[in-house]
Design brief:
Layout: E1 3-4, H1 8-19, E2 33-34, H2 59-62, H3 74-81, E3 90-94, E4 114-118, E5 124-128, E6 135-137, E7 150-154, E8 160-162, E9 188-189
Amino acid sequence: MPRPVHDVARWMGTALLLCGALGCSVEPEMAVTVDAGMDAGVDPGPAPTTCASGSVWTEASGGTGASMAPGYACRNCHLRQAPSLAYFFMGTVFPTLHEADGCDARLAEPSKVKVEILDAEGQVRLTLVPNSAGNFLSTTLQPSFPLPYRARLVGPDGTSRTMVTPQNNGDCNSCHTEQGTQNAPGRIALP
């Protein structure tokens, strides 16, 4: 049986962190009960980082190309080292929320995964498909439509998750880090 939460502010912060960028809602009336494991009286700190595939990319083992450096801020690096390849939308889809930098996602059915880029009116303007390493990228250096945009991730089974907050930066991994920054909950994880 769920038990009362003693620190509603902490619960709301945790719930917003977990749900905010995933599109789920945090209802105030839900603050009275949570799963028994949520409120152990200790701030849990960062979530454990994993590598579900057990395989980590390195420049020596993986080289360069479309499968390189999963999880790293792709566009930021390309702007410095290969500006002609700094495509506007770049990122990595992972099987779980807190995968390590460089972890090869080894997506089972990458061709069935879609990253849909939505314009301000919610219309799909671009559909990107990740490779087996989880990496996806557009083919232009600038977006072909006015910003801001939101993204929707569609999994192999057709379930989807849509970003809540409109964005102007197409370097997806700059916010979708191991632990998440700028209100991202962590990695771009399959729904």
